[in-house]
Amino acid sequence: MAIFAPAMEYLRTLFLEHSALQAIIVLSLISAFGVIMGRIRFFGISLGTAFIFFVGILAGHCGLTIDASMLHYAQSFGLVLFVYALGLQVGPGFFSSMRTEGVRLIIPSLAVLGIGTLMAIALAYACGVSIPDMSGILCGATTNTPALGAAQQTLTQLGIETNGAALSCALTYPLGVVGVIFALVLLRRWFVRPEDLAGPDAEHRKNIFIASYRLTNPAVFGKSVSEVASESHHHFVISRLWRDGHVSIPTSDKRLAENDILMVITTPQESDALRLIFGEQEAKDWNAENIDWNKIDSELISQRILVTRPEINGKRLSSLRLRNNYGINISRVYRSGVQLLATPDLILQLGDRLTVVGEAADIRRVEQILGNAVKSLNEPNLVSVFIGIILGLMVGYIPFSIPGISIPVKLGLAGGPILVGILIGTFGPRLHMITYTTQSANMMLRALGLDLYLACLGLESGVHFFETVVRPEGALWLGLGFLLTFVPIVLVGWAALRLMHLDFGSIAGLLCGSMANPMALNYANDAIEGDNPSVAYATVYPICMFLRVIIIQLVLMFLL
To answer: 12, 320, 464, 474: which has the fewest C-beta neighbours closer than 10 Å?
Structure first.
């Protein structure tokens, strides 16, 4: 036994004796096991990163602990890192999602949020559940850990114990995941008709639409491209022009002539109206997935160029004068997985991918202007990350008064960084701030922050978790959590189908986004053809995540 004594002491020091080293090892182990277990599917469903939460609970139940100050630091830093990176990633598309088609998706998602919050308040008083415990139940039912972080910050500010909120969230979280999937299954079985399922490319056609027109309207004969664009309130880009069998890139001063054939990049809503401007629309479908644009003609090629030069960041597309100076055309811009129409007033950002059409020599010159140096974007811009976090924390701890609340409200660790992240992601390029991070780098920051937060939250909650499950209030919490998940989803899902006439793919995505439930989104993507669920999820997720963080604080402030 004496031989093993040093080894046992070594292991005890590493795993049980409180120190910075022990805290790092314990949290890393919990995160590693949670990630591995999260990949396992049960009946086709996996909990993903959320499994770290439950591994932490089990570790806490078994008596594993870390230093309280280390736990508080790691939990706070993880939450801040996650929500700031999330805000930075969704920022570029946050405000644009408020327009046109995005509004039709956001309205029902806000209804899910509102119905769930009102139900939680009503059920708390009807069933005698304390408001702090109900805040945890609501966060678990909506699988929203940033909202739980905001709730804990508010409760701490009010001098109220936060363990009840963490326990109730841990108890209702699994049903929150499964309940959304169960509700989607029932919605599809009970209410969805064949016509409610859109085609696989429906959402792609909503964003960008390509059409060709034969110029037959005498009103535009002899006018330049810039004159036609300025006199029209429609948004479009003329990508190519065929005249007498010859194809060219129309510059802004190019004069249009009868029987010119124009390839126009626009939106589906604008395509019919453009017939009144140009004339006859040709029958050819330019929106098919398998079109080889470089074989359309022998003189022009199409290439995507990545914006990597910092001096281009924040500039309007028209200010570069690429079409007139180099004889090329930019038809589309890809940003954060979303296609944008390349209108003259579009503000470019580092990391944008521009679809450029022109002759090979001209495209090479434009490539030098825009950069296209992929390696330069692979280097993380950590200065903007740290400055953004500092600004987010400063904003989060600015007190502001709301009528009816006796103490000032603060956005806290969850609200401040996500708000600043969204604002920097949106407006940073206009101020020539380099805010771009690659998608993989952003996902790494978010995953690291969320893993730390969930590991700490589970470890803290695990001490009293299982004794809570067997108590009568444990069963009550489970029932209330399922109601808060299931009822808003079914009510709003039915209304979106029958009253708003949205397709079921978009409905499934917005419901998953409003509940911040990526696990349910995985199910929707597997069960529904096309990318409508993912597009709708990305549209509503940022605003719902932000509002849940704010609303949970307001509820606690008003009712406690």
So the answer is: 12
Domain coordinates in residue numbering, the chain: 5-199+386-559, 202-376
- Cβ contacts of 191 within 8 Å, gap of 6 or more: 493, 494, 497, 498
Contact between 458 and 54 under an 8 Å Cβ cutoff? The reply is: yes
b/e per residue, 243-273, with b = 16+ CB within 10 A?
Answer: beeebbbbbbebebeeebbbbbbbbeebbee
Position 527 scores a pLDDT of 72
Q: In the chain, what is the straight-line distance between the N-terminal and C-terminal CA atoms, in Å?
A: 57
**Residue 252 is which amino acid?**
S
CATH number given to 202-376: 3.30.70.1450
Q: How far is CA 392 from CA 76, 95, 349, in A?
A: 13, 19, 22
SS3 content of the chain, % helix, strand, coil (to 5): 65, 10, 25
Amino acid letter for position 292: D
Q: Where are the beta strands (DSSP E) in 189-260?
A: 209-215, 237-243, 246-248
Percentage of the chain beyond pLDDT 70 is 81
Do 173 and 140 form a contact (C-beta atoms < 8 A)? Answer: yes
Q: Which CATH class is domain 5-199+386-559?
A: mainly alpha
Query: What pLDDT is stored for residue 199 in this prediction?
Result: 47
Report whether 92 contacts 335 (CB < 8 A): yes
Asked if residue 506 lies in contact with residue 536, where contact means CB atoms within 8 angstroms, the answer is yes
- CA-CA distance, 489 to 175, in Å (whole number)? 13
Residues of the chain with pLDDT under 70: 1-5, 42-48, 50, 90, 92-101, 195-196, 198-207, 288-300, 310, 336-339, 373-380, 402-409, 414, 429-439, 469, 518-519, 522-523, 525-526, 530-532, 534-535, 538
Q: Give residue 198's pLDDT.
A: 57
Strands 329-335, 353-358: parallel, antiparallel or unpaired by DSSP?
antiparallel
**Strand order across the 261-266 sheet:** 246-248, 237-243, 261-266, 209-215, 279-281
Rg (CA), the chain: 27
Question: Looking at the DSSP assignment, which residues form a beta bridge with residue 371?
Answer: 307
Contact present, 180 and 520 (Cβ < 8 Å): yes
The two tokens of residue 456 are: 């700490």
Rounded Cα–Cα distance for residues 209 and 555 (Å): 44
* CA 222/CA 28 separation, integer angstroms: 69
pTM: 0.63
Q: What is the Cα–Cα distance from 347 to 265, expressed in whole angstroms?
A: 18
